# Entry
Amino acid sequence: MEGIIELHDNIMFYILLIVVLVCWMISSAVVNFNEYNNHFSMKYLNHGMVLEIVWTIFPCLILLMIASPSFILLYLNDEVVLPAMTVKAIGYQWYWSYELSDFLNTTTNQTIEFDSYLLNDEMLELGQMRWLDVDTWLYVPTNTHIRFIITSMDVIHDFAVPSLGIKIDANPGRLNMTSVIINRNGVFYGMCSELCGVGHSMMPIKIESVNVEDFLSNIMEY
Amino acid sequence: MTTMLTLALTMHGYIADLNLFFIELLVLTSSISLWVRDVITEASYLGDHTKAVRKGLEFGFNLFVLSEILIFAALFWAYLHSAMNPTTELGLQWAPLDIEKVEAMELPLLNTIILLSSGATVTYAHHAWIQNSYKGAAIFMAITTLLIVIFVALQFCEYFFALFTIADGVYGSVFYAGTGLHMFHMITLIIMLSISTIRVTKRTMSQTHSLNLDTTIIYSHVLDVIWLALFVLFYVWV
Amino acid sequence: MNNNFLKQWILSTNHKDIAVLYFIYATFAAMVGTSMSMIMRLELVHSGDTFLHNNFHLFNTMISAHAIVMIFLAVMPALIGAFGNYFMPIAIGAQDMSFPRLNNISFWMLVPGLILISSSMIIESGAGTGWTVYYPLSGILAHSSISVDLVIFGLHCTTISSLLGAINFIVTAHNFKGDSMSMMDMPLFAWSIYITAWLLLLSLPILTVGITLLLMDRNFNTSFYDVAGGGDQMLYQHLFWFFGRPEVYIMIVPAFGIVSMVLAAYSKKNVFGSVSMVYAMGSIGMLGFIVWAHHMYTTGLDTDTRSYFTSATMIIAVPTGIKIFSWLATIIGGSIRFSVSMLFALAFLVLFTLGGVTGVMLSNASVDVAFHDTYYVVAHFHYVLSLGAVFGIFTGYYYWSPIVTGLNFNKNLARIHFFLIFVGTNMTFMPMHYLGMNGMPRRISDYPDSYNAWNEISTFGAILSSLSMLQFAVVVENQLSNGERVTNDTLINPAYTFGNTIASETLEGHSNNAIEFNSPAPLAAHMFNTPVSKFVTYVN
# Structure
């Protein structure tokens, strides 16, 4: 995510450069060349080979300067080297279902699977956020390479947690994968990001990350 | 008129009566035929089709054919999208597990030969026409029409005896969509060929002004090429 | 009397009458679309129970219908159908379009389109799928009512209309030019319509196939997109966006043409580098075909695929930049007269640049991970469409309506309109950038409380924008009932055409750029009854 923010700021610099340039040119044209102080237009000023070449090359250079960090970030995002654990997020209409199948409860022979529903207004406690808090949320350890596998059981949903820099479509019949390393303890929210029907706004995602030791000791409570 | 077309089509799932649909088809066909009759009248009898207008009509028709080629291109895209990477639901193979595909070298090969022959006869007719041989042109246009009618009839047979339907998974769907759209265009081609043949026999076209014939010939050649591509991709490569 | 009315307005083959019909239709559809967007904004004014009382399906229906009505029934008919039909034949010296009856059918196919799309909202529950109508949500399981089918048929109608119109425009451009005019001599507006027509011709068939296969999947139990039968939902997205990408260029390229004409006319200079402008429009059009998957970055495409589409999309920025810089060079050195259409054109320059640069931001697949399906995207395309194409429509209206109707509009009322729409639309869409950066997703009907502030400002701006539409209606009504007659003096005033005879004749092709202004207004029903051999601008 920090990479995205940095890239965004990088690109914003060039964007602001261009926008300011264009606005400056327009305002200088309007101020200097309006009909009240410039009665004669320079009507033969219609071609300019050098100028046209310059303003073709100049955007190309800017694009190249935007593209290089962009591609670096894109390929970096794709590196899923050795995930330590896998979380499956399955989209339903209109809730998420998570499965942490790496952990097997030897007594009951069950892995961790649960559904995550939005808390509606009556069920909210003080301090919880409307439209974002859920009844059971995802616990993951920090500083661990986690692989998310996303799919859907009915229509297209989108698993998005902006603070972690992930957004992947949940396509039915298809498994999409992304990876995350969370660097700090905390709670991260997200919302479903692909129109999935009436309850599209009612499928938030809540991920809480804790220390690895706390995670492993609390995993039994599932 | 066109409202009826679309409204009628939408009702097909929702009103259990197909009569409105047939009425609408009647309206559509009659309006198209009246329009075509108008165009032919303006051309042959009123002399409205100057060289510039003919150039325009031919160019316009070519553009229309281009858009039709793109429709088929999209269908080929759909076919290849599913065929190049068969999913697990299909048994990871194309043709999918348990679908008995149509043998490429039987009926489809005959159809291909028929279409290629019709291409040859229509070229003969065209050259005969250019060299002022009305009789040769008329005969070979008639033969071409007959060949296309046989093609369509054989396609009907193939559809009748096929062992899978359009609802049989993605294979059936893209197969029937592609070949079905082609057949629908072939039926249109039959109509166009018949009109051209009649106009050739009745000598209502001249050497320099034979727009109907030219456009029909182009249409048949294009449909030929599309069939060849269909044959290779949908039947042989499977 | 009855027979005449029927012949002139229902069975018309006159491109001017058909263009007027298109414009009235587009205005009507724009009102419909604006009201839908108002409903959406009123629902989103703050979090919690608001306008629609939690009827979220209605909200989703409003979203989809707003987009479809605005794109297919308002902007495209106004730019291509109305302005293109009216002025392209005049611009090239043709009497009419190449296929007049086809022109008529193109217009009348739009009426069933509107009826079908409206009925899709009224009958049963409405199509709440988004204008992109993605598959499983629009499939028979998730949307089992007839509404999606009606939308598909409505889109079929509009597709046929645009396709036939495109063939008409291309043949007219090639075939019907005056004797001395080669392709390169055509005015820029004619070029923009010509390029748009090619884009329409090549992209609409793909949409037709995509939505027809969707129809068959819904009703005939086929499995083109259905995973259970071995199909792939991604195929729909590919087919749709292969059309969708050129579609947005179809909407903006005519506006480019109009803005070129207006900027040149009101700075009394010819457009800088008109040949490279033509090439820029052409390359924008062509490049538009190879970049479609930048709408699908998060669907799980391969990384190499995403990097290709990133680079291809960024390349489109180059010809667009050339155009903007050329326009700047047109007005610099000119003698700018601030008529209302010039105000709109200047605003177009700034706002389209803003929208374009947010597009560059979105084109990077890595940044798009943060912005996909958020309000940042909504802000981007509304800047280029609502503040680009729509401003282009108004530019064209104020530029050409005096010679179409023969009546001048009231400049002060029109300036109020400009002010209202400029402030209103900016206030509506600028906060959406911030909402998107804060992570508010698109197409949601209610949101967490932290997004309240910007949403309220945005809704207030939307109210101002709808007031501006009312003001536009006031302007038009005033023009038609009280407008002062346009006389030859007001027209051939150097402020409307540019240059004197010497400049117009010696510079190649430039005498062609103000053809419509060299005839008495309102323009005659049949112009150029004898073929044009050479155009000469003359001043009384």
In short: Residues 2-32 of chain A form the longest helix (31 residues). Chain A has two domains: 2-34+49-78, 85-219.
